[in-house]
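MODEL INPUT / OUTPUT PAIR
PAIR INDEX: 1
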Amino acid sequence: MIKKLLGIILLCVLLAVASFFVGRASTSSDSHIFELGPTPVPTPLAKYSIENMQLAPVSPAEFSKLGEISKTKTTNTYAISMKYDPTLRGESNKSVTGVVNVPQEAGKYPLVVMIRGFVDQSIYTPGVGTKNAALYFAQNGFLAVAPDFLGYAGSDSESGNIFETRFQTYTTLISLLNSIATPSFAEVTGNQWDGKNIFIWAHSNGGQVALTTLAITGVTYPTTLWAPVTKPFPYSVLYYTDESADEGKFIRRELSQFEKLYDVNLYTFTNYLTNIKAPVQFSQGTADDAIPLSWTNLIVTKLKKAGVDVTYHIYPGSDHNMRPMWDAVVAQDLKFFKSHLK
């Protein structure tokens, strides 16, 4: 009987001790020991925010001449390639092909970097969207270089993510601009760059690539824009989704995933207009069915308010490709570039 009583007492003591430690483990002061935090979600595209790209190191690209495309009495046109890191983080090296127009007469010439608008990959050939203006500039004493961008012509494949593909158009242009003074670029241009003057010409979606690059880099290269896309990202993408075969379903689905992880305000140049230090000339046709006149009117007003040196030309009756005023528009660009020669 006594043994049984002692056993009961011992059991009660053990239960009391156990409940004491369980209570201790569940108190608020020690509970963090047993809590698991949420698993971090990878954000690989954070490096492409405008502020992060401003800080990213840019390794020089390596240029190669691939062969002659055409020749006139005054100019030579060559296919080139540039090998560079589109991530700006030393994560990969890819090659982008492009076209360079060089005056035949030996000398030192200013350079125009040319950025085309959107072209369907299935119909793209090197120089589409830039070749006529590039030839005009070369005939008038300028070098002209136009990258094809990843996924086009003989370039390496673009990213599997549609937004990284978009952001890498900026890094392609940044790499090109930062490599103009390299020996390999001198080789593909016949060592004819004057070492001082760099200009930018862009059309349509190439205009937002140019403006974003100006906002990232702060370079002062005089820039001319034909009917540029200037609405904030992602509206600038959504506006055209009805042109897709699926009427934009894929793009909207990808965008919803993007917005769960990233602040889109950090990826649109319109939030960084005071970073733009280059003089910019806009040309806009009133019959443009791709870029509303109101878009260009608005961005010109905003840039002027931000202190940017802006020139604006409106061409009544001209379409998205500046027809029928193409000759007058490209001549106005040449005048603008010559007015900013060093």
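PAIR INDEX: 2
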Amino acid sequence: MQAAYTKDDPPPNRVKPVPVMVVRRILAIAQPTNCPFTKALADMIGLAFFFLLRPGEYTDSKSDTSPFQLQDVQLFIGQRRLNLVTATDAQLLTATFSTLTFRDQKNGVRGEVIGLSHSGDQQLSPTRILARRVIHLRNHQAPFDTPLARVYRSNGHTKSVKPADVTAALKAAVTFLGPQLGFLASDVTARSLRAAGANALLCADVDPDIIQLMGRWTSDQMLRYLTLQAAPIMKDYSRRMLAGGTFTLIPNQWVPSF
């Protein structure tokens, strides 16, 4: 029982949610470099922000949960699902929708998918990030069970993005941006990105229940904390229900294409 308690989501006051300008700073540093690891580190940070991921899900490290792999990715252009093996780089990079499939991640329902559309930003977008990771891995003939956080280097060796790498990048970005953020570098770790994505959704007036479903939280402690600090109470439910009540389910890989 004690071991199970230690694996619960940490109390919200242990880390601060980083604002999106921190993620942008990291991407801005990575974009002009030729270092595949630096680029992958920035991309995995962006992915964690958008999909509200735990460190064990977006880094390639030993954990009580499983990292997302190449086989968990789907990319779409409109309603057309792209073949990740045969699609061109250009097609992947113009995807309008992306998904991650939960196989055995912590608190995830097996076979369930979470999808996000292109953000409109050519760099900081879940579709662009996943496309870049797919392109890198397939260019090195990586098997489909390769973690998205694994990097193939020019010398033929691989290197993986670890939680410590993420924490170091976040601390450096927070230090650079300074006290305008309202917190210190010592307040952030790799776990900050999960809270960051939730905080961004709350500030965008997304229903906390939807955020809890998306983040697979089994308690609402973190969400209550973020709501008090960052977002107003939700309004206009009935209008939004009519607008959002017509939908189809995102297919997983085993659903035939149509």
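PAIR 2 NOTE: The chain has eleven helices and six strands.
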